[in-house]
Write a structure and sequence with these properties.
GO terms for molecular function: electron transfer activity; heme binding; metal ion binding. The chain has four helices and two strands. With 169 residues, it is mainly α. β1 and β2 form a beta hairpin. The longest helix has 33 residues. It starts with 6 loop residues before the first helix and ends in a 13-residue tail after the last helix.
């Protein structure tokens, strides 16, 4: 049984975290706050692309992923709910951001390149507020995910946290 995630999976995991935090701290209207907005859009596009890379990597490395220790039915249900919610938000939040940006402007340049936008007829305010709400919810969920990893490390003294950290031992 494997006790560590493959190194490329670790890289995608931690790079995604850095980009999500960057997107969170540079949030706001990218058509008004140009520099921070460009970083926000870059981080969102990158998280969106990394979502698909993550899915591909998980299918490639499936046999090399650590297996969870036996859990109670309650723990297994909670684990799967959080996992699927995190994955859903990695996809949904950037899509809502793209819809919002498309509703705010007819064109947008990201580091000098035109970002493809879509024509829309939806309420950009509702989509934007949903994007922001889910971003805040995502940060709370990430905090709970980190707390769970720390509880596993310090209370249960298992290998859950170490499985996502790159150390020789």
């Amino acid at each position: 049984m494997k006790n560590k995630y493959p190194f490329p999976v670790m890289i995608v995991h931690w790079l995604t975290l850095v980009l999500v935090v960057l997107a969170y701290i540079t949030g706001g209207d990218p058509t008004v706050h140009l520099k921070s907005g460009e970083l926000h859009v870059f981080a969102g596009v990158s998280v969106f692309l990394l979502f698909f890379i993550r899915i591909i990597m998980i299918s490639i490395y499936r046999k090399d992923l650590p297996h969870n220790k036996p859990m109670s039915k309650y723990q297994k249900t909670l684990f799967l709910m959080v996992k699927h919610t995190l994955y859903s938000l990695l996809f949904l939040i950037p899509v809502l951001g793209w819809f919002t940006l498309s509703g705010l402007t007819e064109s947008y340049q990201l580091f000098g390149m035109n970002l493809p936008l879509i024509s829309n007829s939806w309420d950009v305010e509702i989509i934007g507020e949903t994007h922001e709400f889910l971003g805040n919810f995502f940060m709370v969920l990430i905090g709970l995910h980190a707390l769970a990893a720390l509880i596993h490390h310090y209370v249960f003294k298992d290998n859950v946290l170490k499985s996502m950290l790159y150390f020789k031992k």
